[in-house]
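Request: Could I get any protein with tokenized structure?
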Amino acid sequence: RFEKIDVPYWKSAPHVLDDVISLGQYRWDPIPHSGKALTWIDGMRTVTTAGSVYTQAGMATHVYLVTKSMEDEYFFSADSELLVVPQEGRLRFCTELGVIDIEPKEIAILPRGLVYRVELPDGKPARGFVCENYGQKLDLPGRGPIGANCMANRRDFKTPIAAFEDREVKSRVVIKWQGQFHETFIGHSPLDVVAWHGNYAPCKYDLRDYCPIGAILFDHPDPSIFTVLTA
């Protein structure tokens, strides 16, 4: 049912360059937005890779450029989970398990195998970074002696409310597997999961909720909720 397609700028490890121009440190400007219509799939640009997608070890980093919402088009990766860090513009992930909106200063995690569609809720171009993790799923580290008082709290990671689509329409589904991309067409929206439970779900986190160790507190939209204690 699947046919292989070419997604030229989304690379997977191990990716060997034909030639190394020179050694040393480099700096580069933000990748400019293109005049072309780029969806989540077409607009991914790989920066670097490490490890191997075949052995499920390592990762890749990408920059995404999105100028067009996916329409009756869906994607899932059988290779990895994705950590999405927006830099500019808002994104909407319409997933099998519900809808997640993210904006700059927020991050989102899309688990391996999750089917979703990416939209631009404001109709404006979006740009940001993606960490593609081939290995063991991302998890919060233990906080040791600092206990429950600092860093990122599990309660602040938000999962979506169940939502589904009941639409009989021709839909394109793209899968990433073993570093290759394939497509198939089905006669309905795959986002037809009515309910779900468990902990293998997409989530998002507001970086403004992060609390560092020490006397400097994170920025909050309503600072009056905090009381500053001095010795």
